[in-house]
Each structure stands twice: as structure tokens, then as C-alpha cells.
Amino acid sequence: MEKKYEIVVLIGSLRRGSFNRMLANTLPDLAPEGMAITLLPSIGAIPHYNSDTQEAGFPQEVLSLSSAIKKADGVVIVTPEYNYSIPGALKNAIDWLSRVPDAPLAGKALAIQSASMGVFGGARAQYHLRQTLVCLDAIVLNKPEIMVGTVQSKVSPDTGKVFDADTRAFVGKQLVALALLIDKLR
Amino acid sequence: MEKKYEIVVLIGSLRRGSFNRMLANTLPDLAPEGMAITLLPSIGAIPHYNSDTQEAGFPQEVLSLSSAIKKADGVVIVTPEYNYSIPGALKNAIDWLSRVPDAPLAGKALAIQSASMGVFGGARAQYHLRQTLVCLDAIVLNKPEIMVGTVQSKVSPDTGKVFDADTRAFVGKQLVALALLIDKLR
Amino acid sequence: MEKKYEIVVLIGSLRRGSFNRMLANTLPDLAPEGMAITLLPSIGAIPHYNSDTQEAGFPQEVLSLSSAIKKADGVVIVTPEYNYSIPGALKNAIDWLSRVPDAPLAGKALAIQSASMGVFGGARAQYHLRQTLVCLDAIVLNKPEIMVGTVQSKVSPDTGKVFDADTRAFVGKQLVALALLIDKLR
Amino acid sequence: MEKKYEIVVLIGSLRRGSFNRMLANTLPDLAPEGMAITLLPSIGAIPHYNSDTQEAGFPQEVLSLSSAIKKADGVVIVTPEYNYSIPGALKNAIDWLSRVPDAPLAGKALAIQSASMGVFGGARAQYHLRQTLVCLDAIVLNKPEIMVGTVQSKVSPDTGKVFDADTRAFVGKQLVALALLIDKLR
Question: What SS3 state is found at A44?
């Protein structure tokens, strides 16, 4: 049976032990009824954006990413903050997505999550990301905003997931809100 | 004879025919007395930041970039705007620079320039870049702000430089202001 | 007969000869079928936000503004940029609106327009405004973005309106997009 | 004997029991050798910026504020965050300062502090404030950044000051850094 809400998750960190990846890993557990959540492949294999490269043909990784997003009903971006802004590798993936002819993020429901070891939980990256997503015409959920501070105390390296109950409940609420946004946009 | 102001230029675009590269190419012509301007190698060969990679050792390209900046008296970043923010590849280079132990940008005088085919001249990228550079503790020049709009009408593909007289004069003023900032920080 | 889209317009400038007010004055001419556009009273009479004042009772101007927005189907904010950000008086009106119990902007369709004598057309104010409106949970239209540069050459002091045909057409498109957004949110 | 560093403090909140005012009240206790710290009068009496008002003459409150800043060696802005940005009343004061002929903030050393009851400590207001201060050409200290979270647990309503030792130490370090910045700019 087909799920009503097919969600893909874009992760902004490349390292194996990433806390943000652990947050992303947790999402399928928290999905509301009718929501299927799939983690997208790492963006680490996408080359730096270069319009000379683009003229020679979009990289396969970009086309696959674009296609997966295009088919989905919604997107969750889960990302660390690097230097008060978006990680370069994540911004690069978005820069490529902005050039693909079928504009996969345009009109797409999108939620942002971030996690950090400090208290801000990656907030500064989120507002820069929102500005960029205006350009791509994604429909970004306002609330609840998920900024997981001191994430190192809320995840289990064994399971590779978030165990903290408050965080899980809060993230679950965002997924419900994302489903409602998808319904509105239909 | 040693120059009083050794300036290195970091370029945010990777494509061969980049308008921002042409703007950067023009800077040595506009340097005030005593200023030497050197374009840094392309940031295109720097891998995506990944702390797993970092643990295995900083990439040579990052160490070279860091070392060149560390030795300089000042830095000019010349960059396009991608999707209302910093190009991913440029942000990635800065993400690496933020991890290098000797903090090459800390306390360094820095000027930003951007160019675009539209009227904004890359302004949105500059304010995101400024926020990131607070994190790296660079001392960013306030004025004059160089945002070159409709750059395609101001450059010559033959010379690979900006020919527009007003733009050249304005950019020259920023280089003078950068020299004054360097003097203050000494 | 009741109009399908009742829109109220909040103006960020207080001066009599405001170019942004002229832009706002033009909106009723450009309204698509079924849209009624009403300019809200000046925000100049709203006192500075102070929670001590709030405890003594919300000012009547705030309650009227809140009520007018609450009843509307959508909001257009038309504002100049002051010092690369939102004018203080406009931000102050929004600060009050954020405290009113019935949260008039929450879930409300909203479009932003700005005009300036320079080339940027107030763009920097718009992105700060978008960040603030995330907090108030307004649903801000992504596109088209209306940033009217060199506005002094596009308005007639006699009519107090924008005469420039391209600008009028572009603004009209935003109003159509706002109507579509309102439909989606219903 | 004249102090080496005359600092004036601009407070972004108007309410009597303001936590940010308590933070400002604490600054004289924490001033390094040779630094005199004076709190500026409330900005609450400054009317909303309106260029019609300006043409009739700058309000006396604006001229006094401008003059006090002009004479000082440095400025500290202590402010809450309202709706993810600068409080309207504070932005309004800055909007006036940007119009005064003698440009009191241009080239002036400036430090930002913010406090909030939440964990972010007003961070979002600070980055918007930094963007605005680029326009006014203030020289804003990068580090340390003072964002006092859960401030309600760190102040004493009896003394009207911050008692938390870590916060006091950290704020003291910023004042030392401000003195160094003033020295550099001389």
C-alpha cells in the first residue's frame, strides 16, 4: 500500500558519527501514520558546483538527488551549523538543485532540523537556509522549529539515534505539522 | 623590495569564464602604492569538509591556502551570490579554514567584493559572508561595499578584466580603505 | 457582494510623500478579480513597545490594527529599507502584534513589497522581515519578490501612484500569487 | 582625572524591570582599569523616525543621544531580541542616528550584548544589528559575543544587577576586548 506522505531526508553532515545523521536516523521511528521517511544518499559525492561542469552534463548524483526530491511529497533537511551558516557541502548540493531544469524544490513542503553540541542547536544555519530556500521557492514550515542543543547528551552511539524523550516528542510534532502542510499544498 | 601590503584574493567561483574572476584579475591594476595583490589558487580542488577527513590529516590544498592567508596582511574575497547566499564551494573553503589550528583569518583585515549579472551585484551573499566571518574573527571592512551589478557589460572577455571606469575607481577606493584598515590593526 | 479576497496593506513609512505609500496606493488598481484591498491606518500613532504599557492594556491603535489583520484573508507589507533592515516603526508595530492574544498574523497569507531610490529596492529589509515573520508564523509568499528600485522615476506625485507599466504588471502578478496562496491555505 | 575609555551604553528595552537593563547596570562594576561606563537615557522618548519630522528639526532626544555617542570612545548596545530581530524602539533610535549629520557611530568601537529568558540569549537580534551597523560604519567587536541565556536565573531584582559569576567574568572580558579595539582604532 502506498504511503500518503513520502518524505525524503537531506543530511548536511558528511562524517560517519554525525549527530545530525543520528537525528535523521530517528525520524522513521517518529513518523505519524501514513508517513514514509527515506534518508537520501550522502551529498559527499557531489562535486563542487561549476557551470562548466554543468554544461558538460549534470553529475549523476545531482540527477538522482533531484529525482528523489521531485517524487517526494516533502523534504526534511537535517544539518549542523558551520561557522554561523550552512555547511558548504549542503549549500553546494542546493546550488546544484537550483540549476536542475525540473526545479525539484519549487513548491515542495520542507522542514528544517539542526543539532549542535552547544546551546543554540544550529539556529543560525537555519535562518540562512530559509533565505536560500526562498530563492528555490520551497515552502518551508514555520513551526515548530527543531534546534537540538547539547545533542551529544541526547543520542546513543549504540543505536545511532536520539533517545531523549522530549526531543523525540518535539521532532514528532514537526513531522505532524509537515504532513498538515503537505495537505494544504495539495 | 618588500611591499607594505601583501594582499591575497580568494575567488568564490570555479568556472573558467567567471565574471568574479575577471573582477579579481583587475585588482592588481588598481592596487595603491605599496600594495601587492596575489590571486590564490582555485578552491575547486578542496574536498568537502568532513571531520573524518580532517582527522586523517588536513588536505594539502587547505594547508597551502591557510598558510598563504596567514602570511598575508589582508584578504579580498571576490564572489558571486548563489541562491541568495554564499556559494557552497566558497563556504566549504571557509569551513576548512575555521578548523586549521593557526586560525589564519583571525584578526586579519578583509574586504568583500561581489559581482552579478542582475542589479543586486551579489549583495545577499555578502551579508551571509559577514556573519560567517564574525565566527572566524576576521576584521571585515565596512565601506565602500563593492557590489558590481550588470557585470557582463563592464568586463572584457579579451582582457579578462573590468574595463568600466566607474567600477574601477570604486574598487580602487576599497583597496585604499583596506590599506588603512591594515595600518590600524598593526 | 463580499469579495473573495479581503487584503489589508501595512505601510512601513510614515512620511507624507513616501514612495512606498505611493506603491501601496497603486495596489487597488492592480487587484485581480474578487480582491478588495484596504490600506491600514498609519502605524505612526502606535507607541514604542513596552511590556509595562502592555500590562496597563494594549493601546487602541494596536487592537484596531490586530483586529483588521485578523479579519483579512491576506496582508501586504509595503516598506522602505532603513539601514539595511526593517524600519523601527514597522518593527515596533510587528512587536506589538506578536503580543496580542489572538495572534493575527499566525497562518495568514502575506506578501512583501519594498521600494527605494537606489538599485536594491529595499531587498535587505525584506529578508530581515521574513525572519521576523517566521516567529509570528505568517505564511509569506516566496515569489514574485517585489523590490522596486529607482522608484522616484516610476511614480507620479500628482496621482500619488506608480505609473511605470513594468512595475505595475509585476506587482499585479504578486497579487495574483497571493490570491492563489490564500486559496491553498483555506 | 579623565578616564582613558569613556563608554556609553544604549539599552534596547524600555520596561522598568528589564533584564537587559540589569545587565547594563552591571557593566560599571566590571569595567577594566581606566574605563568609565555611562548608561544613556531611555530611548523611549524618541519619536518614530519620519523624514517630515526630521525636516522640521531633529528631536532634542536624538541630538542629545547623538552628541553623547559622538563624545564617547566606545559604545555598548545591550538589547533583548524581539521576534528574532532588533526591537523596534532600538532600531528606531538607530534609524535617527543614521540621519544626524555628524554620523556619531561612524568609526566608533562598539560591542553588543543581549539577554533573554530562553537559551539563545538574543543571538538572532545580534546578527541583524550587525548588518545594520555595517550601514552606519560602526566598528563592531567580533569576540567575545555576549548572549546571556536564562537570564532570569542570573540577576537579582534587589540589586538590579547580574550576580552570576560566569556571566560577570565573560562580560568583563568583552569590556577588556572593547578597550583593546579602541586602542587599535586610535
Answer: helix
Rounded-to-integer distance, Cα B180 and Cα B54, Å: 36
How near does any CA of chain A get to the CA of B154, in Å? Answer: 21
β-bridge mates for residue C161, sequence order: C156
C-alpha cell belonging to residue A185: 499544498
Q: Is C42 on the interface with D (CB under 8 A)?
A: no
CB D144 within 8 A of CB D170: yes
Give residues with Cβ within 8 angstroms of A143, minimum separation 6: A177, C137
Contacts of D126 (CB under 8 A, 6+ apart): D81, D112, D114, D145, D147
Q: Which residues make beta-bridge pairs with C148? A: C115
Chain-chain contact of C85 with D50 (C-beta, under 8 angstroms): no
Report whether pLDDT(A116) > 80.
yes
CA distance A162 to A185: 30
Of residues B31, B41, B42, the one with CA closest to residue B73: B31
pLDDT at residue A1 tops 60: no
Averaged over A94-103, what is the pLDDT? 97
Out of C50, C91, C124, name the one closest to residue D91 (CB): C91
The answer to whether the CB of D15 falls within 8 A of the CB of C51 is yes
Give the separation between CA B31 and CA B176, rounded to whole angstroms.
8
Q: Residue C10 carries which DSSP code?
A: E
Nearest to C127 among A131, A139, A145 (CB): A131
Residue that is written with C-alpha cell 533565505 in the block: A131
Residue B1 has pLDDT above 80, yes or no: no
> Which residues in chain A touch residue C185, judged by CB atoms under 8 angstroms apart?
184
Instruction: Name residue C10's beta-bridge partners.
Output: C77
Residue D124 has pLDDT above 70, yes or no: yes
Does the pLDDT value for residue B2 go beyond 80?
Answer: no
pLDDT tens digit string along A173-184? Answer: 999 999 999 999
Taking CB atoms and an 8 Å limit, are D120 and A124 in contact across chains?
Answer: no
Q: Is the torsion defined by CA of B165, B168, B169, B170 positive or negative? A: positive
- For residue D106, list chain C residues with Cβ-Cβ distance below 8 A: none
Largest CA distance in chain D: 49
H/E stretch holding C90 reads helix C88-97
Sign, CA torsion B140/B146/B152/B158:
negative
Side-chain-side CA neighbours of D11 within 13 Å: the count stands at 24
Flag if D139 and B137 touch (Cβ within 8 Å).
no
- Stated as kind and residue range, the H or E segment containing A69 is helix A60-71
DSSP C93-113: HHHHHTTSTT-TTTT-EEEEE
Q: Is A1 helix (H, G, I), strand (E, B) or coil?
A: coil
Whether the CA torsion D163, D166, D169, D172 is positive or negative: it is negative
Reference D135, options C116, C134, A86, B74; nearest CA is C116
SS3 content of chain B, % helix, strand, coil (to 5): 40, 20, 40
Q: Do B83 and A44 count as a contact with CB atoms less than 8 A apart?
A: no
**Residue A39, strand partner residues:** A9
Pairing of strands B146-148, B109-115: parallel
- Identity of the amino acid at C75: V
**Helix, strand or coil, per DSSP, at residue A172:** helix
Contact D142 B131 (CB under 8 A): no
Q: What digits encode the pLDDT tens for the residues B65-118? A: 999 999 999 999 999 999 999 999 999 999 999 999 999 999 999 999 999 999
